[in-house]
Amino acid sequence: MSFLKLYFRSPPAVIGLLLLILVLAMAVSADWLYPRDPLALAGRPLIWPFSNPRFLLGTDNSGRDIAAQIFHGARISLLIGLVATLISVGIGITIGSVAGYYGDWVDTALMRVTEAFQTLPNFILLLVLVAVFGSTITTVTVAIGIVSWPASARLTRAEFLSLRNREFVQAGRTLGLRDARLIFGEILPNALPPVIVYASVVMAIAILLESALAFLKLSDPNVASWGNLIGAGRDVLRVQWYVSAIPGVAILVTVLAVSLVGQGLNDALNPRLKGR
Amino acid sequence: MRILTLAGRRLAASIPTLLLILIGVFVLLQFAPGDTVDALMAQMGGGDAETARQLRQYYGLDVSAWAQLGNYLWRLVRLDLGFSAIYGKPVATVIAERLPATILLMTASLSLAFFFGLIFGVIAARGVNRWPDTLISTLGLVFYAMPTFWFGLMAIVVFSIYLQWLPAGGFEDITVARTGFARTLDIASHLVLPTLTLGLFYMAIYLRIMRGSMLEVLTLDFVRTARAKGMDETRVVVRHVLRNALLPMVTLIGLQAGTMLGGSVVVESVFSLPGLGRLAYESVIQRDLNTLLGIVFVSALLVITVNFIVDLLYARLDPRITTGS
Amino acid sequence: MSAILTLDAVSVSLPRNADRPHAMSEVSLSLSANEILCVVGESGSGKSMTANAVMRLLPPGVAIDGGRILFEGRDLAGLTEPQMRKVRGAGIAMIFQEPMTALNPLITIGDQIGEMFQLHTDLGKAQIRDKVQALLEEVRIPDPVAAAKAYPHELSGGQRQRAMIAMALALDPRVLIADEPTTALDVTTQAQILELIRDLQKRKGTAVLFITHDFGVVAEIADRVAVMSQGRVVEQGTAEEILGNPQHAYTKQLIAAVPPLKAPPPRELSTEPILTIEHVSKTYRTGGFLGRGQRVTHAVKDVSLVLPRGATLGIVGESGSGKSTLARCLVRLIDPESGAIRIGGTDIASLSKSELRAETRHIQMVFQDPFASLNPRRKAGDAVAQGLVVHGTPRAEALARARELFALVGLDPSAIDRYPHEFSGGQRQRIGLARALALEPRVLVADEPVSALDVSVQAQVLKLLADLRARLGLSIVFITHDLRVAAQVCDLVAVMKNGEVVEAGPIGQVFGAPQHAYTQALLASIPGRGFGLRMADS
Questions:
Q1: How do strand C207-212 and strand C175-179 relate by DSSP bridges?
Q2: Low-confidence residues of chain C, pLDDT below 70?
């Protein structure tokens, strides 16, 4: 059965894809629907949602349009999530494949480093990185990528360890193939699918990490981030709880969509394990 | 005995890791704009260059970075974490004051996550692809996708503001002096919401792992052997599947001890708990690098300790570890 | 003799998306007390499904959809699950192919056997312990007291299978189902387990349903035989009738494919050596800290052998004998510690990594597992052409050569654009052979090239190999655990045990008049030794 057919057979995977398309549509249409700066003063502060047709989702404590921030925030979340995931998975694949292929002391040394990154609580490392390099959107994205690679490195390494002694790799070696060709031509294509599936987990974590950082006012204050908005809403939580609630739902939906798509990909790639 | 030897070896192997972390973070902090003295002087409302020089000398910041690192490591050997200029106390004291709240929070959340993750994972796996499984798996996904701090805030809105059942923050009620059991109860009530907030996220992860692991083990040959003996399904699960399925979950605790400690930074901030995580946040804001380095050290130690316990537990569960082949 | 277990036109349906509607179609068998009925067939014949259907332990989606399974007068197909559980273990017990995975790794052997009594009797703890002890003694496990307290990983494969047998026979079941119980074992262990099963069966009068793919085992142990193919029983009768005078064409073909344990007349061998192995050793060190408490395993120990041009040198031995390590040393997949491996003037063992890449074309390897030996993401033609491309042949030319090679190994040349999963096991092994031959090596190292194949496919691949050897004058090092196969293809043979060559020489000599005690034991262990000889003679 074709891959797409397998994917669309699972309702959660389809729901995930629809949600992801929705968030993507929000990100794409943000400039068109809300051309003004989402962080600029738009009206009276703390208007409740659905009470003023001009501000469908109301305004926050500084009088900024919440709906505009949600739409522009989708852009930031997806961008940070995607780039941080690329960085993280890129580092993970490189370190994991080198460690897994060469084994021996190379493996020992690289695994020590990986262990160090896993021993140090990742959020604390993130705090340190942001404290040192500042909190522009670029540094935050790179920092999130740097703190979240160890799991994909371990995964890639495990795949390499099981594949490197597989007979087709040995056959390649007896044919006289160089290490680089064995790694990139023979092993990596077979090791990649589970890592790609895992990338959805990394992306979910990256989006959550950024929002947490923004909530603590340690992310870039000059962009419309959902986490920033939740942090701002905290000051008026007692009465105007909707300021925090609405962006939270947006994060929830996005992370859910990414996870469901990842799980759907996994089930479609391993039809035998369906339902795990 | 072999268990202790093995665990001891793991412990010894974590010393280089610890060293790697400390050196790495120390070097990283050298790139930080401004040092503790800058932060201190900003707090004092400025001062002249001479005062700054004297302060740097006092804090040992006037020598080269490598010498500072050497000094720092040497002091660490003597269990001296240095002095916090911001709090005006030794770092060790500052951390010791904050440690109990974090340890309480982590233990409670981990127990909650592990216990309910286990139970729900088993229930889901037993009814795979039927309604209990669908319900549990969906709820698990939602808890997983929820930002913890947001869940915390919403819990405050519901349970503290509207229902007024539980306190919105803090470690204990400092307006009333309590002792003994009453105090324990008070602290417990303060910890309910933070524990739920941190624990439910990890419960979602554990239940997913447990469910997958159960389904995996159920396909193994020895389960067929057990059925061929005439054993009923409940007994098969309890006697043969459960313990085998638990192994990946135990491993996961060790792997995630670090992330969980990181998660407590956010949760402690939401609930204004005076814990290690909140201290980390404060020292970043206040550029108290000495304290930050101390926190890095202590949290790494905590993670190593958790992993040590996990190793012991794993060896208890799996005889292949100690009588290895 | 009245039957204890009768299968009356039993059919088992497969899930809708399977390659055929039925795993078993109207299978009728009957099993009497005190007899061993062997159900024999190739993979996919439905023989294991028969065992699972009787136990009612079918995989999800697979169900009995016709016929009756009568056991002591009751139809098992119609029992409720709780009623069936009383039959399993107590009335009908089962042993499996892989004793390592069939036992729970976290529970001691004694406790796992004891469960039988806990489930079906009211015995107390102490009584159960005594019973377990007696059972372990009965299956002649070495040191039964220690074995009861051991975990599965602490026992050898043969001991684990003994423990499984003890467990199955705990409650003196009327019927024992053995699903390929010796397939995962070495030949000497297999002989002991077969003897044990036969012995216990005679003493207790148990009826045994023995599932196997191996006609040697059938000849050794069966009273009666049923031959299965594609879910149907094509022929059944007494062992003598089926083995000596098969009627059905499929049975005849299967039996003809079993190589007889007798070497054909020796060929004239060249005196010029093409490959010399001189004092090659490889040791593994595990565990230990700074050199203390290390365990040293001599995987290969001071092996010296000579392969004459155009000859086939067989290396035989059981698992752990070092034969595969030696093969991998020859192509430098493993670096030998000492010794020389000479082809022509070059010593393969002393080449640097880059020199090796150039020289490796002279010695090529064919691997065991037809599924693991081809990259699933690379087209079959590319896999064959790859070696040529690496050594400088233009791609188009290499692909043209791949087509020729496909024709040479009996594959359709137009199939070079297909992916490995589109080929059968036997066809993949042919691709592997084409890949190794592409570089026109002087020596071909074949590591168990036919042991993962069904017997009829195995015969075809062996025939191809013999054919290529005659046409191309190949010199082959042939690694195998199967002495029947060795007898058919090898000119010379070396018997390995614990990393050492214990005996070597022309195959007719070594197999006809073995000198070393181990060689004698090995040959004596082959199930159904005499089987197949009559046919070869006639």
A1: parallel
A2: 1, 286-294, 532-538
